[in-house]
């Protein structure tokens, strides 16, 4: 079966690379993945796959029903790009100013279309149903949550879901999996400090929100080092400061924005509690008004233990054992696949892209990020194989 599957994948390898380059040239942001969704939709329809569009604005759901009854498995791929000016120098670089596929979602979408193509050719061997979820808005503003809300996991109900991500900290050719938490939860916060402004020469007549903000930033750094148990990962980063309009004016308002990344709910609650306490202390100590707004963007992505064990065993059917890498520590990055993992058994594969010899060394979310396109062929092969294995022996 491995040779047959490999032949099927190789027969569409040029298409997969072509799709990736097409998406890379024409990146789209957030939920506005209109052209990307159109390409995916048209191809699924050509394959005879049932298609539903307009989910979470531009999301696409394809449902392939096998010739034999069985469980329902889903593959989710994300489609959106990032607001970055590309500096790769690729011949198929972004043609959209200030927008770039710097997180590999062009490759994810191409692999999703490749898997759909391969499995549609093996429909007679499918013991169940495969759902292909093409999701917009992974980077922002929460496409997974909306797609779950709009019912992509129902009718028929999904029994298991697989996600994947191209990842430059894993060598090209290797696949990374993890048991338990793969990525962190993400709470975004905005702190507004409102004082009394005035002339910079007379600060004693003011209640200075800039000075208060400086003390607040320093105090927040102690939450991780002094309040949280160091065996539980926690990150608090203040990433944006806005305030002031002139060198001789103390402003009335300063606004801070940032993120809390946590794996355990216990650490998350500590961070939220202490952040509120620090703000109250700054408020009374500096005689200013302070407000805090918190928006929970993502939960931790939890890889189901049974499903991950299944994937670990399945992978050795399709590639050498030494190419399977168990990831020891969770990432403090966020991934909204977590909304799917909270609803159905889910696991997540990291497809290695690091290759120093060929200069595939740049990190995600940088204007230089690129990868060897052969990993898209490997990824299509592996994902197709895992789905076939699951439909033959569900867990």
From TrEMBL:
Gene3D superfamilies the UniProt entry points to: 3.30.70.360, Zn peptidases (3.40.630.10)
Positions annotated to bind Mn(2+): 103, 105, 139, 165, 365
Cofactor mode of binding and number, as noted: The Mn(2+) ion enhances activity.
Domain Peptidase M20 dimerisation as annotated: residue spans: 185-280
Pfam family, one: M20_dimer
Biological processes annotated in GO: diaminopimelate biosynthetic process
Keyword DNA-binding: no
Record-linked SUPFAM superfamilies: Bacterial exopeptidase dimerisation domain, Zn-dependent exopeptidases
Descriptive protein name: Amidohydrolase
Alphabetic keyword roster: Hydrolase, Manganese, Metal-binding
Species of the source: Desulfotruncus arcticus DSM 17038
Cofactors required: Mn(2+)
GO molecular function: metal ion binding; N-acetyldiaminopimelate deacetylase activity
Organism lineage string: Bacteria, Bacillati, Bacillota, Clostridia, Eubacteriales
């Amino acid at each position: 079966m491995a040779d047959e599957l490999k032949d099927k994948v190789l027969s569409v390898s040029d298409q997969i690379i072509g799709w990736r380059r097409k998406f890379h040239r024409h990146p789209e942001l957030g939920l506005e993945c209109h052209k990307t969704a159109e390409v995916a939709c048209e191809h699924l329809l050509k394959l005879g796959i049932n298609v539903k569009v307009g989910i979470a604005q531009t999301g696409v759901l394809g449902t392939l029903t096998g010739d034999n009854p069985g469980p329902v498995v889903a593959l989710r791929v994300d489609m959106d790009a990032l607001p970055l000016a590309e500096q790769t120098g690729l011949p198929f670089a972004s043609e959209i100013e200030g927008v770039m596929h710097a997180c590999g979602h062009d490759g994810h979408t191409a692999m999703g279309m490749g898997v759909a193509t391969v499995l549609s050719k093996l429909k007679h061997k499918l013991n169940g149903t495969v759902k292909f979820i093409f999701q917009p808005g992974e980077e922002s503003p929460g496409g997974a949550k909306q797609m779950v809300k709009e019912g992509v996991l129902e009718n028929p109900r999904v029994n298991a879901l697989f996600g994947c991500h191209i990842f430059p900290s894993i060598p090209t050719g290797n696949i990374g999996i993890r048991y338990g938490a793969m990525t962190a939860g993400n709470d975004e916060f905005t702190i507004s400090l409102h004082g009394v402004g005035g002339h910079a020469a007379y600060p004693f007549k003011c209640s200075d929100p800039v000075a208060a903000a400086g003390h607040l930033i320093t105090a927040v750094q102690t939450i991780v080092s002094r309040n949280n148990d160091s065996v539980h990962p926690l990150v608090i980063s203040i990433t944006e400061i806005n305030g002031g309009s002139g060198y001789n004016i103390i402003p009335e308002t300063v606004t801070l924005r940032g993120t809390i990344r946590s794996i355990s709910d216990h650490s998350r609650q500590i961070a939220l509690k202490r952040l509120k306490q620090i703000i109250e202390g700054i408020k009374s100590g500096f005689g200013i008004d302070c407000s805090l707004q918190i928006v929970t963007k993502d939960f931790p992505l939890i890889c189901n233990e049974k499903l991950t064990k299944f994937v670990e065993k399945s992978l050795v059917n399709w590639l050498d054992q030494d190419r399977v890498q168990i990831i020891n520590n969770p990432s403090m990055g966020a991934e909204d696949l977590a909304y799917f993992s909270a609803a159905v058994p889910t696991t997540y594969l990291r497809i290695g892209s690091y290759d120093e010899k060929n200069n595939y060394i740049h990190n995600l979310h940088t204007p230089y990020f690129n990868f060897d396109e052969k990993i898209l062929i490997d990824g299509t092969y592996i994902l197709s194989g895992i789905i076939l294995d699951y439909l033959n022996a569900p867990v």
